[in-house]
Structure formats: C-alpha cells, structure tokens
Specification:
- The structure holds two protein chains of two kinds.
- By secondary structure, chain A is mainly alpha-helical.
- Chain A has helices at residues 2-29, 32-37, 43-52, 59-71, 85-120, 125-139, 142-156, 171-199, 203-210, 215-245, 247-253, 258-267, 271-299, 301-305.
- In chain B, the strands form five sheets. Chain B has a ten-stranded mixed β-sheet.
- In chain B, helix 10 packs antiparallel against helix 12 and helix 16 (441-450) runs antiparallel to helix 17.
- Chain B is globular, with a radius of gyration of 26 Å.
- The chains are: A mainly alpha, B alpha+beta.
- The interface between A and B is large, with 75 and 77 residues.
Chain lengths: 307, 524
C-alpha cells in the first residue's frame, strides 16, 4: 500500500511538472493565432483569433485556466476541429497501444530465442555473422527500414499492402508491426545475448554442468532466466519508447495513432491536443515503468527480499 | 522449462493479439471505386467554413457547392448562382440555381444564403477561414426565393470572384449542429456526402440529390503523411491517385501504370526583401532589388527541378487570377546587367545578406535555394541561408521580427489585393506588420481598393504589378506547382488551381477493373 502511495505521489509530481513545462514550452514556440489565421490573415482576423482562443489574455491568466483544466483533465477544445482534445487523443490511443503491443510481443518472441542462441556460443562463425546483422539493424533508422520493407513487400512482391490501418485485415498490421519491432528487437537481442554469455560463466552454471545437466538444460533452465532480467528492464523502457516514439512509422504507414496526431497537432499549433496527448503519453510511460518495476521485483527474488 | 513456457505464452499472446486486431472490421463496408492518398485529412474536414487549400478542398468541393466558381481564366463562373449584377457600389444581386437540393432533401433557396451569411458574421464565423475572407459582406437579403441581394460594408467590384470560396450548407441541418465540432457534420448539395470517417480515412458516397453527378459513386481518401509512402502506395496499387508528390517521382509513377499531372496552385513563390527595420540595407535601393532578380537563372530551376511545369514570373499574382497581367515580361537572366545595376547603386563589389527559408514545403526546395545562393554569388552577393519551420517563419514575418534580410514566402488567392496590402505602407497594424513599404505604391493601392468597377480595378492591378516589377519587394520565382499521380485508366482529372473537381474523374471503358487491380496488389 505504501508503495502504491509512493507511486501515486510520483505520478502527481510528474503530471504537474510535465503540464507546466509543456504550457510554457508551447507558448515559447510561437503564437498559434498566426498559424490559425493563416498566411493571408488580416490584422483584424489575427486579433479576432486571439480573442476567440483566449490568447489575448495575460500569460499568468492563461496558465491559471490551464491548471484548472488540468485538475479536471479537461484540456479544452481542439483549435483545428473544435472537438474535446482529450476525446481526440483517446480516440487514437487504442491504435497506438495495439501497434506497440504487437511490436513488443514480436520483439520479445524473436529476441529471447535469438539472444539465447547467440549468447550460448558467441564465437561460432554463423553466430558471429548473425550478431553482425543484428548490430547493423540496431544502427539502422526505423523509417529507412520501413520504406525498404514497403518497397520490397508492397511495391516489388505485391504481398502486403503498403498502408494501414484496417482492423478487418491482418495484412495491414504486418509491415507497421515489423517496422516497429525491427526498432526494438535488435537491442533486446543483444542485451539478452550479452547476459547469456555472462551467465554461462557463472558458478551455478558450472555447478549444474558438474551435476550432469546437459548444455541445453543449463542454457534454457539456468542461464537464460537470469539473463532475462536485464532484458525485462530494457523491454519496459522500449515499450514506453514505442508508445511515444512511433510518430515516424505511423506517418509512413498512414497509421491513425497518437504519433501521427502529435505531428499534426504540433504542426498546426493545436495547443490543447498537444497538451492532452503529452499528458496521456507521460501517464502511459509512467504506468509502463511502474509495471516494469513491479515485474522486476517479481522476477528477481533479491529485490523482493529487500522490502 | 519455465522459460519455454513463458516463450510459448508470449507467442500465444501475439497470436491472440493478431486475431483480435483482425476482428471487428466491418466486412460489409462499401468498397470505393477510387482511392486517393492525401498528405492529411484535417480533423475539421467537413466544416464548410474552413479550408481553402488542397487536400481540404478536395473533400469540401465534393460535399458542398459554392456560390460561384472560377474558370481556367480566373473569371467567376456559375455554380449555385447562375447570374449576378452590381446594383450599387454596396450591393450585388445573385440569381440562384433552380432545382437544387441538399443531400438531406432540404431545398436550396435564398434563405440558405441568408443564414450562411449570418453564421459568417458571427464571432465564431469571423474566426473561420471563409468568414474571415468575406468580411465585406454585411448581410444577405431575400429578393425572391431565387434571388438575393448581398449588402456590403465596403465596395467590392470583385464580389462574384470572392464568393467562389463561399460554401453553402443545408441551413436547417446546420442550425441543429452543436458547434464548433459539429460543423464538420454539415450537409451540402455537392456530388458526394460523407459516408464514414476515422482511422485516417474519409469515405465519400454519391449524393443522390446532386445536380453535379459524379462518374464514380464511392471515393475514399486515405491519409498518408509521408510523401515516399504515398508514392509507394500508388505504385503498389493500393491507391488510384496520390496527391502532392514531386517531379522526381514521375518515372516511378509511370512504372506503376500511372501518369503525373502537374497542378498549378494559386500560390506564387518569392523571396521577400525585408526593407523595414533594416537600416542601411542595400535592399532599400530598387536597382539592387532588380539586380538580384536578374542574377537568378529561374528558367534553369523551373526546367530542371520543377520539370517545366511552371514558368518564371515577375509579378505576384498567379496566372489565372484576377489582375494577372500576361503582357508584363519576366525579368531577363542577365548577370552583366545585374552587376551594372549593383555598381550604379554603389555596390560594385557586392555585399552580404542573410536569408531564412522553410524547406520541405515543396519537393526540391532546398536545392533551388542553394542554386539561388550560387547565382547571387556570381554578382558578388554572398547569401547565408538558414532554415526555419514554416510556423516559426510565419510568426516572425507577421510580427516583423525577421532575423534576416530575405525570407521565403508566397502569395495566395484569386484576388491579389490582399497580398498587395500586406507588403505596403497600408499594413501598419501591430498584429501584422509589413516587411516592405514603398510610399509611392500607397496611392496606387488606394485607387485599386476604391475602384468599384471591375475593369477599372483590373487596370489598377496592372499598374501595381508594373510598379512592383520596377520596385520588386522580393525575388520573384514562379507559380507553385504541385505534382499528383493518377492511374492511366482514369480520365477527367483537370484541376484548376486548388479546385480538383472529383466528380469529373471517370474510368475509361478499357480500364482495369479496380477490384482486379487491387486484388493483384492484395490491398484491403
């Protein structure tokens, strides 16, 4: 219970800090009245837009109004569409969550066996070659891989559609999921492989071998579970990163998620939507990190005992 | 064993997720006969009072009818209004088309214009794009059910042209909507109506009541913000058209059984000179400004980077807009003359300038800014170029805090008067400060603004354009082209600036059936 309260306190501080920083950063970025009114705006129109959105008010008053809204989780209406900003964000949230979850699961499904295989005998020639490929993939920008995959699977081979999102057709999920997974899987694989290498030289592994356990058993039953601890921490961070950093992939695939909404709202200075979206993302990242902490304690008996 | 079990669980969850993701699709969804990839689908799309540029206009023009339209020569043409006349300097009468119904069955008559004008005159309406463009309209009066009188608060000799952006929604239905968000649910009398929206898509279905009958009954717009991804979607057969690509994409589009259609927008690109709050700038001298215009080989740039789709210009009204003077010659590319002009102005060895630009607005723009800097260097003008996001540049220019001598800019619209004013001494408000002010231009502008006769105003515009050629407010570039790609079997796509006429697009008899084409590409 005390741990939960501590997390809650952290969350409140986080929300306030992010909210305040965002308010002032966005105001420092520019006057949205110019963008809303457009290039042909008359001075009268710019003044009218400022009045309409309360931008003519002193900054401190705007801030007080904003804080009041924040307390009620009311970020106001989107400047672009007039919809409640939070509703727009919540409308896009499931698409990003689904995509990030699929990509993360795929990453884990690939990284665990591949990392274990690479880490078990790291000096074998084939594994060194595969390690090299993983290393290159880790350094490749996600958007380049995404465009290459579209070129190969959608343009040349015509196997998959180049654009999402269609809930009724699993094929629209393949390339966006692969693209995001290719961003997270290589680093996860390398961390697991490095941890397996380390674990395979630990005393408990030698002991297990001395007691007659086969190489396979020592790898899968003794070394890998320990190696996964570091992987679990990284996976949590990566999942949080996927939630907030999928904008480019969403843009390439026309995926109607949070990332593409963020790009749109930033480019149009749609303050309420940006604020609502960053708030939701910060909340999600916090929840993912808190869950990772809890999972970590569950996986690692040493951390459990520390309580 | 525990790890294997966990791994098996992960795979199981992945499979379940895939299955869940695949569920919930509406299998009975209408299949579009035409799919178009567009850079964005703004959330407000559907609000008749917002948006005057592509791709917003693509949908709005399909859903709503405007009071008038603009023909290829830039003149007003009939739409909901079939005829018009100026009855006095502050009033025009419009005859309205008979037999028009909105998609919900409401009858279009004079009252629809009255109520639409009332909305535009409201505080909310004035903050919307169309209301802010038609501030001269004070009210609309019903003369007969088929004739209205538009009363103005200042003379407007070009009102029939200006109301070409005025889209009319079904009045009773519009009144029932909860604004502002509800405005996008407005119903019109255009050839299409919105069938569904969301998930980055907008599905349009034929409006059975429409007087502009569409050739293709169902059209879908798909939002693909990334330009390369739009091209790939076209080549792969996922879409039949892709808007706003670059000239470089032509060969790829042709390999994908398509063709490229250049579309000249209503914008003219130029590099503005900041002469206000810029003491001792060489740009204060008109000879220097002319010299810079003559030093840039714009023909080379339009030929090689823009595929010859546009031509260099020496005026800031686009061809096809009211007031464009086709007789006004473009600046010659003449570096010797440019050097002589600089020497006459007292700068025989040139000088240094700074320029802020927005790159990525038009494909290849970074390249032509580099080439312009290289051209200017040949006459001794050393140009340092810095990049800015478009929103930042907009703010800097409007607030008069441009941290450079030159900046990338463009004019827009069918009537250049507004742009003339923005770069003149008449624009003295703190809310939008001018970047250039030539006192000699002021009386010409005032005469143009007060001209109540269309031909007189045309003469005044020509005089202003001639003056600006001799006293250029920037380096004139060209009418901005956009490049769209379209499947070979589609005909009838002939955009006029930002009007795309979706209803005129049709498939030829020999065309590949869309279902077959998409089956080949395995498109959902």
């Amino acid at each position: 219970m005390s741990e939960l309260l501590a997390q809650l306190r952290k969350l409140i501080v986080l929300v306030l800090a992010v909210g305040c920083a965002l308010f002032f950063l966005l105001r420092a970025a520019g006057d949205p009245a110019y963008v809303i009114a457009g290039m042909n705006a008359t001075p009268e129109q710019i003044v009218a837009v400022r009045e309409q959105y309360g931008l003519d008010q002193p900054l401190w008053r705007q801030f007080v109004v904003y804080l009041g809204g924040l307390a009620r989780l009311d970020f106001g209406e989107s400047i672009s569409s007039g919809d409640p900003a939070m509703a727009l964000v919540l409308d896009r949230l499931p698409h990003t969550l689904q995509l990030a979850l699929m990509a993360m699961l795929l990453s884990i499904a690939v990284a665990i066996p591949l990392g274990a295989w690479l880490g078990a005998r790291p000096d074998a020639p084939l594994r060194r070659a595969v390690s090299g490929v993983v290393f290159v993939l880790q350094g490749s920008p996600g958007f380049v891989l995404a465009l290459l995959m579209i070129q190969l699977f959608a343009v040349e081979l015509l196997w998959l559609p180049s654009i999402g999102y269609d809930a009724g057709d699993w094929r629209t999920w393949v390339l966006p999921t692969l693209s995001l997974a290719m961003f997270s899987a290589p680093s996860l694989t390398r961390v697991i492989a490095a941890n397996v290498v380390e674990a395979m030289h630990e005393d408990y592994v030698r002991t297990a071998r001395a007691f007659g356990a086969s190489f396979s058993v020592t790898l899968w039953r003794h070394a890998l579970p320990n190696a996964l601890l570091g992987g679990a921490a990284l996976a949590g961070v990566q999942f949080a990163g996927l939630l907030s950093g999928s904008a480019v992939i969403e843009s390439i695939y026309g995926w109607p998620g949070l990332g593409s909404l963020l790009l749109e709202s930033v480019s149009t200075f749609d303050f309420p939507v940006v604020q609502a979206e960053v708030f939701v993302i910060a909340l999600l990242v916090f929840l993912v990190n808190a869950s990772t902490d809890l999972l970590f304690k569950r996986l690692d008996p040493r951390l459990r005992d520390r309580r | 064993m525990a790890v294997r079990s966990a791994f098996a669980k992960a795979v199981f969850i992945l499979l379940v997720s895939v299955s869940l993701a695949s569920c919930g699709g509406d299998e009975s969804r209408i299949r579009p006969g035409l799919r178009i990839a567009v850079p964005n689908i703004p959330p407000a799309i559907g609000n008749p009072y917002q948006g005057v540029t592509v791709p917003t206009t693509l949908a709005l023009q399909a859903i709503f009818d405007t009071v008038t339209t603009v023909d290829a020569d830039g003149n007003p043409a009939p739409s909901l209004a079939t005829a018009w006349r100026q009855v006095d300097p502050l009033a025009w009468e419009f005859d309205l088309r008979e037999g028009v119904r909105f998609s919900n069955g409401e009858i279009f008559d004079a009252q629809a214009l009255v109520e639409s004008a009332q909305h535009m005159a409201s505080k909310r309406g004035r903050g919307e794009t169309i209301g802010s463009m038609l501030v001269q309209i004070e009210r609309v009066e019903v003369v007969t059910p088929r004739r209205v009188r538009v009363v103005l608060n200042e003379p407007d000799a070009l009102l029939p042209l200006h109301v070409s952006v005025w889209r009319i929604p079904a009045p009773q239905h519009f009144k029932s909507l909860k604004l502002p968000a509800g405005a996008r649910e407005a119903l019109g009398s255009g050839p299409y109506m919105i069938e569904a929206r969301g998930d980055g898509r907008l599905l349009l279905r034929e409006n059975p009541q429409a007087w502009r009958k569409p050739a293709i009954p169902v059209v879908e717009l798909l939002m693909i913000p990334d330009k390369t991804a739009r091209l790939q979607a076209f080549i792969s057969g996922a879409v039949d058209m892709a808007l706003v690509l670059s000239f470089d994409d032509r060969e790829a589009a042709e390999r994908g059984r398509g063709r490229m259609v250049p579309r000249l927008t209503s914008q003219v690109d130029f590099l503005g000179f900041r002469t206000i709050d810029n003491p001792a700038t060489p740009l204060a001298d008109p000879r220097v400004r002319r010299a810079l215009n003559m030093a840039v080989d714009r023909q080379l740039l339009t030929d090689y980077l823009l595929g010859g789709a546009t031509r260099p210009t020496s005026q800031l009204a686009p061809p096809g807009s009211f007031g464009f003077d086709s007789a006004l010659p473009a600046f010659p590319f003449d570096r010797d003359l440019a050097r002589r002009l600089l020497a006459e102005a007292g700068y025989p060895r040139g000088f240094a300038l700074t320029m802020v630009v927005t790159t990525g607005e038009v494909a290849g723009d970074a390249l032509y800014y580099q080439q312009i800097a290289a051209d200017l260097a040949t006459i001794g003008v050393r140009l340092e170029t810095r990049s800015r996001p478009s929103t930042r540049l907009l703010q800097e220019v409007f607030s008069g805090n441009i941290g450079a001598d030159m900046f990338s800019w463009n004019t827009r619209g069918t009537d250049p008067l507004m742009d003339f004013r923005h770069r003149s001494c008449l624009q003295a408000s703190e809310a939008r400060r001018p970047f250039h002010c030539d006192p000699q231009l002021t009386p010409l502008l005032q005469q143009a603004m007060n001209a109540s006769d269309e031909s007189e105003r045309r003469r005044q515009y020509a005089a202003i354009a001639a003056f600006e050629r001799e006293h250029p407010p920037g380096i004139f570039l060209w009418q901005r082209p956009d490049f769209d790609v379209i499947r070979n079997e589609l005909q009838g796509y002939a955009p006029v600036q930002d009007q795309l006429f979706l209803e005129r697009i049709r498939r030829t008899a020999q065309s590949t059936a869309p279902a077959e084409a998409r089956a080949r590409a395995r498109v959902p």
